[in-house]
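Changelog-adjacent note: as of this version, every example in the card shows the full chain rather than a window. The one below runs 146 residues end to end.
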Amino acid sequence: MKYKDEDEIKKLVAAFEDATIARDVWKHAEHLVVALSYANKYRLETAIVKMKDGLFNLLTEGFKIDLTKEMPYHETLTVFWMRTVSEFARSTNGMPLHEKANSLIETFDKDYPLRFYSREYLFSDEARARFVEPDLCSNHQPPQSS
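Full-length structure tokens:
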């Protein structure tokens, strides 16, 4: 989706926070844009907490997932993406939010973490449960937006 203005992003964030976004709509791009909204408003530590809390709320309240039976949440991916998006937000400071969002979506595909993590390590139980540092490349610097 190409965002035309900040209001579209505000609606997405509200749907995420209210756990009303449809499961088939909640894709990689939407994750990134909500993360960007938080990265624009909060310090990294707070943005991570807001994203994590929102994800758990969405999983349990919106998608009605019993987290004792299924755990789709992934701590390493959440922290990795929040760090990446926060760095991106700083590098594009001054750009309108909707333009940042469109650039972010174009710049980072869902496989981006695999530049830093081996697939086996990234999708291990350990990496799901707690944040682990990259095993392939510790220089976690996203490319600059053009």
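Structural remarks: The two ends are 19 Å apart (CA to CA).
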